[in-house]
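During the reporting period the student researcher (J.K.) took over the structure-prediction task from the postdoctoral fellow and processed the backlog of single-chain submissions. One of the processed entries is reproduced below for the supervisory committee.
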Amino acid sequence: MRLAFAFIALLLSALATPAAAKGCLKGAVVGGVAGHYAGHHGVIGAAAGCLVGRHQAKKRAQAQRISPQYDRANRTYY
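J.K. obtained the following structure tokens:
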């Protein structure tokens, strides 16, 4: 039974696509530490931190994309 479970887990991990982890890793670390100190809920804190970190990274990327600094015509960027 353990062998079948290990084989299925290995197969599923091989088929998984890589995730874009912008913001997730930092948020997971901070959330995990905060969750650990807030009552030994490190895994829940890490999951919530990942979600919040990803959300913040998306907001930051969108703000940078629509920034007027990058929309000027005939501007040289170094």
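The committee noted the following: The chain has a mean pLDDT of 77.
J.K. will present the remaining backlog at the next meeting.
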